[in-house]
Specification:
Length: 180
């Protein structure tokens, strides 16, 4: 597999080896020894599956007291995935990076605990699967406004994304982090 480090410490793009022929392809999406050698945890406690139509923006989400590490990939479609560093003691606090995850590339994204995460669906639809290092605690969830001017995230094709009520009401970066 090919591993590409991002500008945010610990955030990795993982490109598994793809074995293709006329029947299709095969790829490992998790192999404990290999992935743990990259610094990923050996144990995940929850798998999530998200389906979204084009223009859906989910995020930017995080958990306050129970931060989750996430290993994410697109089973179908393509998404623009964004990670924001919300670790106050980090030299890249408040910085973000983005990745395009797609079924064609079979690439994955490792996001360690301490980051906010969101994605925008670019294809007609997308199925995203992610493994989490901690359970989802609804009472612990925080969110940041997707178009916060402080962050200045360059979302593609995003004049008016499809948002949940919760995401549409998400506070700005400075307000959201008061709860951490």
């Amino acid at each position: 597999m090919n591993v590409i480090a991002s500008d945010l410490a610990g955030v990795l793009e993982i490109r598994p080896k793809i074995f293709s022929d006329e029947r299709g392809f095969f790829a490992e999406t998790w192999q404990a020894e290999r992935y743990c050698s990259l610094g990923l945890p050996e144990r995940f406690v929850q798998d999530n599956h998200s389906f979204s139509v084009k223009g859906t923006l989910r995020g930017l989400h995080f958990q306050k007291k129970f931060p989750q590490g996430k290993l994410i990939y697109a089973v179908t479609g393509e998404v623009f995935d964004v990670v924001v560093d919300i670790r106050r003691d980090s030299p890249t606090f408040g910085s973000w990076c983005s990745f395009r995850l797609s079924e064609k590339r079979c690439n994955q994204l490792w996001i360690p605990p301490g980051f906010a995460h969101g994605f925008l669906t670019l294809s007609p639809s997308a199925h995203i699967i992610y493994k989490c290092t901690d359970f989802y605690h609804p009472e612990d969830e925080g969110s940041i406004c997707w178009n916060d001017p402080t962050l200045s995230i360059s979302w593609p094709i995003c004049d008016s994304p499809l948002l949940s009520k919760k995401d549409a009401a998400a506070p700005r970066f400075s307000e959201a982090l008061k709860s951490l």
